[in-house]
Amino acid sequence: MLVTGLVVTLLGVGCKDKGSGGDFSVSVNYINADKLAPMEKRRMVLEEIPFGGEGAPVILDSATVAEAKGKIELEGKAKEEGIYQVAVENGPVLLLVNDADNIKVELDMSKKERYYTVQGSEGSKQLQDFIQQYSDRSQEINGVFASLDSLKQVGASDSLVLAMTDRKNSSIASLTTYMKDFINNAKSPSVSLFSLGLSSQVLPKAEFETVMNNVMKKFPEHGMLKNLKQTYDQQQAQVAEMEKQRAAKSLVGKPAPNLTMADPGGKNVSIADFRGRYVLVDFWASWCGPCRQENPNVVRAYDKFRSKNFTILGVSLDKEKEPWLKAIAADKLSWSHMSDLKYWDSESVKVYGFEGIPYNVLIDPQGTIIAENLRGFDLENKLTEVLK
C-alpha cells in the first residue's frame, strides 16, 4: 500500500480529544508463530511512530514470542489518542488506535491478509476496515488500468477500450465515494487523519479540501488537524509557485524557435520546412535508454495519425553518425531526422532549453507550440484531440 508523505505525517499524530489520554494495554492472542521463518527470541513490540514519521519508531513495550501460540500483554502510555503499531519481528504488523484502556487482538501469523481481529477499540476496527477496503479497491483499480494498457498496446477495438475505460472510471468513482463517506462518518480524530492522508492520493483537489474542512469542523480543537491544514496550505503554495515557474519557462503558446541541421544524407532540414502541418519535434539520442523505450509509443502515434496532416521530426543529440543511423533503423523511425552531432552542446538544447531527453514539442500548422513533453498515451490522446 502506497503511503504519501502526508500520510506519514498523519501516522505520527499522537493527538486525542481532551481528557482521553493515559495508560492502555494490548492483549494479543496469537497462533501459528511457527509458520514464520525460524529465529531465536522473536520479539513482539508495541511502538509509537514519532511525529512526522521521522526517525525510528519508539518502543513502548515488548515481549518474546516463545511458543507457536500464546498470549502477550503489552502496555503503553499516551498523552492523547494516536495510531500505534504492534509489530512481530520478521512477521506481521498491525495498526491500533488507543481509544480504549484495554484492546484485545486475535492474531494468526500464518495468514498474509485479514490476519487479525480487534475487540474493545472501535477506532482500531474502523482503521482495519478502512485499510482493507482501500487495499482491495486499489488492487481492483490497478488491475483495470493494467488491462486497459494491454488493450491499447495490442490495438484492441475502440469498443473494448471504451468498455474497459468505463469500468476504470466506475472503479475510481466507487473508491472516492467510499473514502468520502468513511471520512465524513469517522468518529475518531486519528482515524480521520489517517484516512485523509490516503484520500489525498485519490480525491480530486476540491473534494479533498471539502472533506478535510468537514473533519476540522467535527474536531475543531484537534491540534494535528490544525497542523494538517497548515501543512496542506504550505504544500499548495509551493505547488502554485512551481506551476508559476514552470509556466514562465513553458514554450506552449509561443512560436516554435527554428532549427536547421543536417539529415542522415547531409541535406539541411529546418523545423520551418514543416509549416502547414502538425509536427512533433522529438528530441532523443541513440544512447538514451528512456528515449529508446519511448520510441514504440512514438511509432504507434505516427502510424495512427500520419494520414491526418501530421508528421514527426527527430532531432538527435548523438555524437557520432553511425549509432544514430543504426538506432533509426532498429526502432523503425520512418520519419524525418536531423542532428548536428554535438551531444549536449547541440544547438537544440540552447534554443529549446530542455534539461533531459526524451523531450518533444507539438507544433500546429501556424508554427505555434501547442503542447510539450508528451509521453506514452498522453501523446496519442493529444493528437486525437487536435486531429479530429
Automatic annotation (TrEMBL):
<dbReference type="InterPro" id="IPR000866">
    <property type="entry name" value="AhpC/TSA"/>
</dbReference>
<keyword id="KW-0201">Cytochrome c-type biogenesis</keyword>
<keyword id="KW-1015">Disulfide bond</keyword>
<dbReference type="InterPro" id="IPR036249">
    <property type="entry name" value="Thioredoxin-like_sf"/>
</dbReference>
<dbReference type="Pfam" id="PF14289">
    <property type="entry name" value="DUF4369"/>
</dbReference>
<dbReference type="InterPro" id="IPR050553">
    <property type="entry name" value="Thioredoxin_ResA/DsbE_sf"/>
</dbReference>
<feature type="domain" description="Thioredoxin">
    <location>
        <begin position="250"/>
        <end position="388"/>
    </location>
</feature>
<dbReference type="InterPro" id="IPR025380">
    <property type="entry name" value="DUF4369"/>
</dbReference>
<protein>
    <recommendedName>
        <fullName>Thioredoxin domain-containing protein</fullName>
    </recommendedName>
</protein>
<dbReference type="InterPro" id="IPR013766">
    <property type="entry name" value="Thioredoxin_domain"/>
</dbReference>
<keyword id="KW-0676">Redox-active center</keyword>
<dbReference type="Pfam" id="PF00578">
    <property type="entry name" value="AhpC-TSA"/>
</dbReference>
<dbReference type="InterPro" id="IPR017937">
    <property type="entry name" value="Thioredoxin_CS"/>
</dbReference>
